[in-house]
Amino acid sequence: MGIITCQNVSKSFKRTKALNGFNATFMENRLTGLIGRNGAGKTTLLKMIVGHGTPEYGRIQVFGENPFNNLKVSANTIFVDDEMVFPAEMKLHEIIKMAGLFYDNWDGELAERLMIYFGLNKGVFHDQLSKGKRSTFNMIFGLSARCPLTVFDEPTTGMDYSVRQDFYRALLKEYINHPRTIILSSHLLNELEGLLEDIILIKNGECLIHESMEDFKAFAVGLTGSKEHIEAHVREEDVFYRKNVGSTQSYVVVRDQFSQDAKADLKESGIQVTKVDAADLSMHLTSETKGGIDDVFKQS
Amino acid sequence: MVLNHDSTKPIYVQIAEWLETEILNDHISTDEKMYSQYQLAEMFNINPATAAKGLNMLVNNDILYKKRGLGMFVNPDAKGKILLKRKNENLKQMIRELVQEAEYLKVDHDELMEIVQQVRKERKDR
């Protein structure tokens, strides 16, 4: 069942179009990754989904209702980002105690255990925490709220590598034990690709791709070999990325439309067929040019 | 086992193959209950849907069977099926690559067979 539907959603700030006819349906109890470049419209989209703002054009429905100014949506939704604001006069242990009044499924015991594990002193104020610790606390708050719709907007900002790994594991365990709809925006696709069921790629305010993670990973392949050979085998519209390797060889990322036999033929003719990892693929797909940064430095 | 996220093999296929190996090694025997998608998700730190896909692959290949509401169990002839499948698919593929490499290195048939026999002997002597 679709729990969030976005129809033709557009939003501008001054003259910048943050979202431009965004369409997508988020299915219930799935863990979806929202991936895109800086300024692609991720945060704008997420904020409108949780009711912090309205679209200029188009329509967003959450739990079948308009999320803006909506009590049902706000009681069943938690939005975690690095700008989360908590009452300034409350210490962490007071915050996690009060949260139970707002969120029906709140698990204060979990919050406390996680705070001990991550070394958060419960007697301090939220604004006294370092960047990484603040993100950690926000993440704990988001998991412990157990809201049917849980949205993380770049939750790992400032977290070190090991805290991030622990977070992914905690997220997975919570998701298994208490299934809920989770949207996670991040730049670290390679770290969490195994966790995600679906991926949405957003580019220039539009939904570029919405696929299961498995299909996304099988979406393209990398070919390395002599330029002529490769050009003979691929069509220009299928090329997402192209790089010269030495003077005669090139590496291209292309839409994978090759059968097993076709791939065997490619290998036979000396072309190496490799997997393109999800993070690289999303980078190539969201790039404005087919050569990436190299194009900027190309002397013509 | 550690999953290889960089492999051309999808994660769910890696999961299915790992389960097959568990069956071949008698870690899970006939009519015994297979791990659930949630157990696998926990073990390998992957999305439960991916784990389910691996399990379903084995159900479609008649290696596992479903009991409604109880889970998935190992088919009595699972081992034979797995061995047959691996022979037909994996081994053949490896040999295809081996032969291709041999051609590339201009190793002829007799020489190749000689190397194969030599390696087999070495393994026996160990």
UniProtKB/TrEMBL annotation, chain A:
UniProt entry keywords in alphabetical sequence: ATP-binding, Nucleotide-binding, Transport
Keyword Nucleotide-binding included in the entry's annotation: yes
GO terms of molecular function: ATP binding; ATP hydrolysis activity
Ranges of residues in domain ABC transporter: 4-229
Descriptive protein name: ABC-2 type transport system ATP-binding protein
Organism the protein comes from: Tenuibacillus multivorans
From TrEMBL, chain B:
Coiled-coil segments: 81-108
Xref: Pfam families: GntR
Domain HTH gntR-type: 9-77
One function term, GO molecular function aspect: DNA-binding transcription factor activity
InterPro entries xref list: Tscrpt_reg_HTH_GntR, WH-like_DNA-bd_sf, WH_DNA-bd_sf
Record key words, sorted: Coiled coil, DNA-binding, Transcription, Transcription regulation
SUPFAM superfamilies in alphabetical order: Winged helix' DNA-binding domain (SSF46785)
CDD domains in the cross-refs: WHTH_GntR
Official protein name in the record: DNA-binding transcriptional regulator YhcF, GntR family
Native species: Tenuibacillus multivorans
